[in-house]
Amino acid sequence: MTTNSELLARARVHIPGGVNSPVRAFNGVGGEPLFIERAEGSRIYDVSGRGYIDYVGSWGPMIAGHAHPDILAAVKQAAERGLSFGAPAPGEVTMAEKLCELVPAMDMVRMVNSGTEATMSAVRLARAATGRDRIIKFEGCYHGHADSFLVKAGSGALTLGVPTSPGVPAVLADLTLTLPFNDAEAVRQCLEANVGEVAAIIVEPVAGNMNCIPPAEGYLQALRRLCDEHGTLLIFDEVMTGFRVALGGAQSLYDVVPDLSTFGKVIGGGMPVGAFGGKREYMEQVAPTGPVYQAGTLSGNPVAMAAGLANLDLISRPGFYEDLEAKTTMLVDGLRDAAQAAGVPMAFSQVGGMFGLFFTEATEVTCFDEVMACDTERFKTLFHGLLDAGVYLAPSAFEAGFVSSAHTEDDIRETVAAAADVLKTF
Ligand code: PMP
């Protein structure tokens, strides 16, 4: 049998860092990344056959648990009809109808293959529609790895300490204005200092790439108002929050209507998928109805559509979100009690099925600077203590956690007990 270490050594020869996406390398926590051989329900299994209760869920898509039989059946059926046609197929129509039904602010949608493609395309469209070049993003928010977004970015860029990537031309980086999250006054000042220049504000409505930070009361509404005043488009990047915090996304939860939205993760059920969409007046400017070019060899892939539609069916069932939220609350409450009992100062956050945990004296964490002030050494100790006990958290203090409907109360009790054991040693 090939061991984890052998695989990692082989992987490092031909793949940078041995991984195809940086955070997977465990740079944020140290130690060897686990190679995963299979997954089922709430658990992933490494190449030695050891199982772990998984709170990463492939970074969000596996909201109904791993290897869900409905999704597998849909994928098998679709695969038997052919893997890709490069021509329109019925599943794409159903997917577009379903997304536009679930997300009221979305009149039209275009499928792509990743969250990065979705955000990149949405910003191109916003620039074209407004005839302006600048965009506003927020410190610690991550919108994929397109050049315009790798400026003070979150997620792996933050974990690796390169929030602004080399290779992004300065002329492009200069067009990305970065402001603190949850500070509407900073946005107002910025828009007033750049009148007529800002095409779009792009925001994760719940920040999930610098741990998990909910929007302050009224913050998203203020962004909407400011965008209206300045002729700037509001883009909600719901690649993570879409169908994670509520059916209909964060925009339905907070009742704010963006001009454009981006999705990914859950809508692919584990297959590579993204989508951007929004108001008809903008989406009709996308090729071929309009001049804004956007395309993809595998976009709307029939197998991916089948997986995504099966996932959307599962999450549309009555009570799905109530159950998911209740489980997530049970986990967060349990962890909070464990931290209190151990006398370890911590703060927690939760929106629907996503959660965050912070090692801080503060009672809540609201922006990037506060995240950076948290104790990442303690996170590493918790991470490895939990891993030893068979619980898999995201391998970085700057990522949100995800619960799935396949997590049982026993899974959560086991997780909390394991965390309590680790926290007692602090
Ligand atoms: N936007 C957000 C909010 C994300 O969380 C991510 C990925 N974590 C992306 C965009 C990029 O998506 P992808 O990795 O599929 O390109």
From TrEMBL:
* Pfam families associated with the record: Aminotran_3
**To which pathway does this protein belong?**
Porphyrin-containing compound metabolism; protoporphyrin-IX biosynthesis; 5-aminolevulinate from L-glutamyl-tRNA(Glu): step 2/2
Q: Which Gene3D superfamilies match?
A: Aspartate Aminotransferase, domain 1, Type I PLP-dependent aspartate aminotransferase-like (Major domain)
Q: What reaction does this catalyse?
A: (S)-4-amino-5-oxopentanoate = 5-aminolevulinate
Q: Cofactor(s) for this protein? A: pyridoxal 5'-phosphate
- What Gene Ontology terms for biological process does this UniProt record contain? protoporphyrinogen IX biosynthetic process
NCBIfam families registered for this protein in UniProt: hemL, PRK00062.1
Tell me what this protein is called: Glutamate-1-semialdehyde 2,1-aminomutase
Q: Which organism is it from?
A: Marinihelvus fidelis
Question: Which gene produces this protein?
Answer: hemL
